Q: What sequence folds into this?
C-alpha cells in the first residue's frame, strides 16, 4: 500500500512571505457611445463630436478628425484612398482601418465603387447620409411610440413586459 501524502521531491522552504498582487483589469475607459441630450446641446465643434463617438481613446479621435477633415475639404468631398493619411498625419494603418470601419458602420462615411455613375465612375470614400437619416428616423419613431392609437395597441404594449 502506497502512502500518497509523502513528497517525493524535496521542496524549497519559503524564507519570507510572498505578497501576491491581484492582477485585475486596469481602469479601461469606456468605449461605448453615450449620447445624452446635454452633450448634443453643448456640441459646438468637431473635436467634441470626436469625443462623443470615440470616448476614452484620443488616438481614435485624432484619426476620426483626420478622416473627417480630409474628406470635408477634398474636391467634391471624395477621397480615392485613405492610405496617404497615414503618412500625412503619422497614423498607423491598423488604427486608420479600425476608425474607418467604425465610421462606416455608423453611416458617417461610405465606400463607392467605380461602377457608380453619381461619383463619375471613381472608386473611393464619400460622406454618407445614413447616419443623419437614422437619427431623424429614431426621433420620429420615439414620437410615434408616444401616441396612444387604439385599445388594441395598449394591450400589446402592456404585453411587452412579459417578453422582456
A:
Amino acid at each position: 500500500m502506497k502512502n500518497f501524502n509523502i513528497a517525493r521531491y524535496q521542496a524549497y522552504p519559503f524564507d519570507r512571505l510572498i505578497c501576491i498582487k491581484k492582477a485585475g483589469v486596469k481602469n479601461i475607459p469606456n468605449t461605448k457611445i453615450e449620447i445624452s441630450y446635454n452633450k448634443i446641446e453643448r456640441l459646438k465643434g468637431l473635436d467634441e463630436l470626436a469625443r462623443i463617438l470615440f470616448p476614452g481613446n484620443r488616438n481614435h479621435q485624432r484619426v476620426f478628425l483626420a478622416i473627417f477633415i480630409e474628406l470635408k475639404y477634398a474636391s467634391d468631398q471624395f477621397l480615392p484612398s485613405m492610405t496617404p493619411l497615414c503618412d500625412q498625419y503619422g497614423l498607423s494603418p491598423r488604427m486608420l482601418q479600425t476608425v474607418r470601419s467604425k465610421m462606416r458602420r455608423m453611416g458617417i462615411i461610405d465606400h463607392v465603387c467605380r461602377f457608380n455613375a453619381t461619383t463619375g465612375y471613381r472608386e473611393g470614400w464619400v460622406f454618407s447620409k445614413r447616419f443623419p437619416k437614422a437619427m431623424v428616423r429614431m426621433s420620429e419613431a420615439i414620437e410615434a411610440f408616444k401616441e396612444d392609437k387604439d385599445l388594441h395597441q395598449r394591450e400589446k404594449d402592456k404585453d411587452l413586459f412579459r417578453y422582456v
About this structure: The CA atoms of residues 147 and 153 lie 10 Å apart. Helices lie at 37-42, 46-53, 58-73, 84-89, 93-106, 130-146, 151-163.
